[in-house]
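Appendix B. Raw example, untouched.
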Amino acid sequence: MADLVKASFPPPATGDQDGYVDGMPLGTRGGTRFEYTFPADGEYRVTITDFDFGNYPRGVENETTVVVLIDRKEVFRQKVGGEADLAFVDRGGGAPAGEKLMERFANIPVQVTAGVHEVVVAFIERSQVETDDLIAGGTLYHGRLIKGYLRLPRVVGPIHVVGPYAATGPTRTPSREKVFICKPEVPDQERACAERIARDLAGRAYRRPITKEDIDGLMPFYEAGYEGSGGFNTGIEQLVTAVLVSPDFLYRGIAQPQKDTKFYALNDLELASRLSFFLWKRAPDDELLKLANKGELLRPDVLDAQVRRMLAAPQAETLVTDFAFRWLDLLEVDKFEWDKQLFPEFNAELRQDVSTEIDLFLRSILLEDKNVEQLLTADFTFLNERLAKHYGITTVHGAQFRRVRLEDENRYGLLGKGAVLLHTSYGNRTSPVVRGAWVLDKLRGTPPAPPPPNVVTDLSTPPGAQPKTMRLMLEEHRKNPTCNMCHGVIEPHGLPLERFTVTGQWRDLDWQANAPIDSKVTMPDGKEIEGPADLRRALLSRPGQFVQALTVKLMMYALGREIEPQDMPQVRAIVRAAAKNDYRFSSLVTGIVSSDAFRMQALQE
């Protein structure tokens, strides 16, 4: 019998479970979803710990139906709420009675096969309420009250999964089949099979030819596990563990040549590893390893074909989720904290929406192989109704994100994205300095110097003082010649974005200072501009500068090191070559992979 495995999954990070949640099954509202790797076939028991049946029993005022789905197939359905449950909670004193109600959702038995499965806990969608009386939390929309179903449960506690019970033993799953490439039928075959598994697994994990010394170092782990009660299976488990903690797996090693040389070319396997971690952030797949082992990957036509194959694969999404988000410093936008008294219109759900918007937008340019300058110029974005209303767009309806053409050119590209505007603000005010430094660093590739020591950088309004616009406060700050040296370059790149609030809404008035926003600036080259659209045009006025800034960061990501001055001729050559192909993202990737910096290694001095 397999050991019981216990797993716990937190409730949704956001509290809005009013309606349909993007990505959840149609016909449901609210709830949560997660993926779990079930270790074996058998029965598992799911426990939903809390539906917010506390001292204020809002979740039982109306009857609703809770469903649990595995891979979008319903495995459990239970009603909760209504007159009887509400009376029970009223008599039972709130929380204790709520805990009693939650017993209906404890140890729910489900039959699941081994492997990765999607688990969904959601509520059956209810009709919208139409009434002349306001219901708490309801919203008037075209004279009609919607969201009258707010008084229904929410998932606010973790969900536990325990099992397997009555497991049928080790199950054939794709991952298990990759490990067990042979299956001994009699004990005399077990040792030889274990060595075959060790050679195959270590070859893929270490990404190099496996020697006799490698096998001799792994087999004692197999033997130690074999001597226990588990026999062959436990021995293989210990062998796999040894492979996964080996430095050869955890680090990417590059063999140094025997001859005295300063630079040397990577071999096929080393190149395969560098390429795969660049494009997929993982070890090479079987096709890449097969070509490398045949010595064919160094051929330019083969390498180019592999780059295009890998860019078209789903694994290439790491170029967005890892590279692009790191390049733009947007990995933690979903943790941004704002002043809820100053910006009551913003909430955790909108914060998640702006993260979704920037993710979909970056994918649409990079993974669809568009001209990378469209990161600045694209006249479209991805919105749902909630985020569209936040931006002042009234033509989008429904909770699902979809591509939307933008009428206001100030919203074009990265400069108009809520995620960027949140990240470049403080929780209680905008910051033309932070925004300008971000534009210089990320979009122009010319990061400003850090402020000198002991310089006052806090521009917050002192208690009791009359608030001033950010522009006036910065003008006073620049009266110090030491400060003006840097601010004279930074602020022209940040003040044009001052029309955007902390949360990304458009404004004409600074309501704290009760004064109109003045976003006119003179750029370092003497050109006068005003607003985000002018700033975007200024950034693109020097051909190739933005593309070069992106290429430097992309090459740094590919090589895993800082870009040195001696690398810049290669960077400029990549940009020039990409210009002939409309600056498509794939042309930048191909240029990097074909460069000496990527295909060669320098000895450490």
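End of appendix B.
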